[in-house]
Amino acid sequence: MEDEAERSGVRVGPHLRCLRPLLREWARLHAQLGREWQSVGDAPWWYNERALLSVLAGAVWRTGGSALEEYSEQKRRDGALAPGRVDLWLSCGSHSFWAEAKAIEVPFTRSGSQVDRITRCMASAKIDIRRCAPDGSTRRLAIVFGKPYLRLGPRAERERPRKRLVAQSAAVEKHALAWVFPDQRRLPKNDDWVCPGAMIWIKELRR
Question: What is the pTM of this model?
């Protein structure tokens, strides 16, 4: 059986190195809450976008940054500025970001790729974050939270598809990737599917 360190990971491109500590903390928070909630078959990672965003914001605060969620802001719409809402503003050291996030369920089967499904979700997040006009200092991030679902079965049989999903993520357009699949005996489930962990893909938009 893999140890906890092998069941999570962070891959970050050079210009988003500042996000590495918070993504590691994001994984630790999910693992911690998963252990605390497993007695009732619950976990933080299978809730909606708003809940998933709160875990990321918590990781920002716990690594010494600042975060503001779901706040009103002027955004570009049809060539003009109009009232809107930003999913998340965060700061990490000297870096600050606006972020727009989407959540997606990823039903993972033995064959087939989920890359197209994740890519479409990322495209939607990119459309939203482009409505935040660059101001010269605040950078822009498109975020996709992934909720993988695997067929119910022995834990050993769930390892291979989970590893394939992480491997497939190499083909998703991104600048940062993190995942966490805590080793726990009781996972949230829906019918014959279990939700074993969480993934996050992040793309920075520079124009």
Answer: 0.90
